[in-house]
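Our consortium's second objective concerns turning raw sequence data into structural hypotheses that experimental partners can test. To show how far this objective has progressed, the report includes one record in full. It was chosen at random from the queue rather than selected for favorable results. The single chain below, 279 residues long, was entered without modification.
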Amino acid sequence: MIQILKTPEDLRHYAAQLRAQNKTLGFVPTMGALHDGHLTLARAALGQCDECLVSIFVNPKQFAPHEDFDRYPRQLDQDATLLESAGVGAIFAPEVEIMYPSDFQTMVTVGEISRPLEGEFRPSHFAGVSTVVARLLLLVGAHKAFFGEKDYQQLQVIKQMVKDLAIPTEIIGVPIVRETSGLALSSRNAYLSAQERPIADQLNKILHNMASEFQSGTAIPDIEQNAQQKLQDLGFGKVDYITIRDAQTLLPPTEDTTQYRILAAAFLGKTRLIDNIGI
């Protein structure tokens, strides 16, 4: 039977049991509404560690006032069933007042890597992510923590934070899990209407077209402009970005760039979709 842990004391007791058995712990932080992408992270954790702990916490600090905090799906019982079937031993599912007591005053901000792209369009987002992830990593004390590459910039921010703060948990990136159409799995895909789904499927195809154009020598500004136009022609609304960046800095490439990443964020109806691929 999967354990549901609610408090730091519960976590300490769970961790003490693992230490007594000399077992390693893999950690997967989530906001719930789990899909096969999350389960892939759990399987990766169980492949590298003796046990896996998944946290389920819809973090209010990473949502701006106009975003979807109130309507974000919450389905703990369903999520617990999925995780138990995947072999996960425990879930940490704290209430907001446990994560952020009334006297909580600290926010964690990461510098340069958090400023472009998501940082431009969701300026408070990464401070909320960094704060909750730092708190979770310190509470859980796992040997390794697993994050999906769909949120590529988030992964880089967390790696930088863990390095800077010397948090003794190894951060592991796991490749994006996709539907057969190429659409990246996301809890927010549930917001898409039946009419929007086939349009959403085109996002990843456009990224791959951008990669082909880049490899054939087309200028980056032309590639980006054409891609944005294609999205809008398909029926996407506001395009926050669709761009080719240095994979390490997430800034526009320079002559020193050796690894590239194509990243996109765009609205389809009320749903904000993100995706990325390496070149």
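The partners drew two points from this record. Residues 29 and 38 are 9 Å apart (CA to CA). Residues 3-174 form a domain with the Rossmann fold fold (CATH 3.40.50.620). Both points have been shared with the crystallography group to help prioritize constructs.
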